[in-house]
Design a protein that fits this description.
mainly alpha, Growth Hormone, Chain: A, 74% helix
């Protein structure tokens, strides 16, 4: 299935966690990036609206524009990494753009300046994500992709948890200002970029060997991909359409569980702990049992959790549901591993671009749908429709996608 599989040793006994150096280093880079990002992200809405005086509509404009551009850049950067047959430069460039943009927030004095900084931050994300995913897939044996992507997502969530906790601690203990926090947030990502430049080697990956002609134009067609990849995209699109922002779970906790405002960060932290704990385990499980089984299991957890949020309102149940819901996140890395299983090496960058686009372009309508239903008919129907879309995606996955051996 994979032209390079015979040249890759398995397992990587001399590497941490049995991972290749590239995969291990990229996980560490992601840890430091998310530590930096989550020092900024929870504070950005109040910084924009309360400190700079922008309206809530402007916050929506910032988020909408930034996410849309990141979605489109995922397509372009994946294609470009295939065409150049090099991925590291795009990954390093994307992280560097985000680092500079986040640091610039410490200097802004007007909402439009904050919009520009946050927009450029997401540009960096759009540049790096698809080439990075392809580089991870290039750098491991097919039978280890689940563990590799699971490890990467686990490092993501661990960095996010520590980043948010660090910002809260620094503000509470040392009374640091927004600008001081944003300045400090530049340091972790600078460390991450240094690690990326020093440890990641393009040669460890196949680097798109035997790729298409370098003169091939950018095309968004799915024609080069087989039916299984298209089925995966359809299933993921359906699922993500019902997968609204997790902020709605916090809103549910606040309204139904009578949580004090101070308890919401703790609830959010519990969710991140669960995410970090299950990501690598889910990936390893998919290496043994198959990607499809683990994805279906994770999506079933999601559907059951949403049904629970629809009907269960006590604080004890809310805590339990947050932990249970966190197990769904075992599928994040597994889905990305499955993309690599389904496409040729020379098309991986484009495949990840299309996959990441399909996921991210649906986030906004999913959240708008959830918000509209919540306001119009209440939270219970909103959660039940989200669960129903998950079940529909499971049906597509179960009936139309043949299992892939790793």
């Amino acid at each position: 299935m994979d032209k390079r599989s015979s040249r890759l040793t398995r397992p990587n006994q001399g590497s941490p966690f049995g991972l290749s150096r590239n995969v291990f280093a990229l996980g560490v880079v992601s840890f430091f990036n998310d530590l930096s990002s989550e020092m900024v992200y929870p504070l950005f809405p109040t910084f924009l609206t309360e400190f700079l005086g922008a309206g809530a509509w402007f916050l929506g404009l910032v988020e909408g524009l930034a996410d849309s551009v990141a979605s489109l850049l995922n397509l372009f950067s994946g294609w470009l990494s295939d065409r150049l047959k090099r991925r590291k430069a795009l990954v390093a460039g994307g992280y560097s753009v985000s680092a500079l943009a986040r640091g610039s927030l410490a200097l802004v004095n007007a909402p439009w300046q904050a919009l520009t900084g946050w927009f450029i931050n997401r540009v960096g994300k759009g540049i790096r994500t698809s080439p990075r995913d392809a580089l991870i897939a290039d750098s491991c044996h097919p039978g280890e992709r689940g563990r590799a992507f699971g490890y990467h997502r686990s490092m993501d969530h661990t960095g996010a948890l520590l980043g948010a906790a660090s910002a809260s601690l620094l503000m509470a203990a040392f009374s640091l200002s927004y600008r001081q926090i944003f300045t400090l947030a530049f340091l972790p990502i600078a460390v991450g970029i240094t690690i990326l430049l020093a440890l990641v080697r393009e040669g460890e990956a196949g680097a798109c060997e035997a790729g298409k002609s370098e003169s091939e134009p950018l095309r968004l067609s799915l024609e080069p991909f087989d039916r299984r990849f298209k089925v995966l995209l359809l299933a993921v699109f359906l699922f993500t359409l019902g997968n609204s922002s997790d902020a709605f779970l916090l809103l549910k906790a606040r309204q139904a569980g009578n949580f004090d405002l101070a308890m919401l960060p703790a609830l959010w932290g519990v969710l991140h702990v669960t995410k970090a704990a299950v990501s690598i385990r889910g990936g390893m499980l998919s290496d043994r049992l198959g990607r499809k089984k683990v994805i279906l299991f994770g999506w079933a957890i999601y559907a059951l959790a949403y049904i629970g949020f629809a009907f269960l309102n006590s604080p004890a149940w809310i805590w339990t549901l947050f932990v249970f819901y966190g197990f769904f996140y075992m599928t994040e890395g597994v889905q990305k591993a499955l993309v690599a299983d389904l496409v040729p090496e020379e098309l991986r960058g484009r495949a990840y671009g299309i996959y990441n686009f399909a996921v991210s372009v649906t986030v906004l309508p999913a959240s708008l749908l959830m918000g509209f239903l919540w306001s119009a008919v209440g939270s219970r129907p909103a959660f039940l429709i989200g669960a129903g879309l998950a079940v529909a995606a499971m049906a597509v996955m179960a009936t139309a996608l043949k299992p892939v051996s790793t």
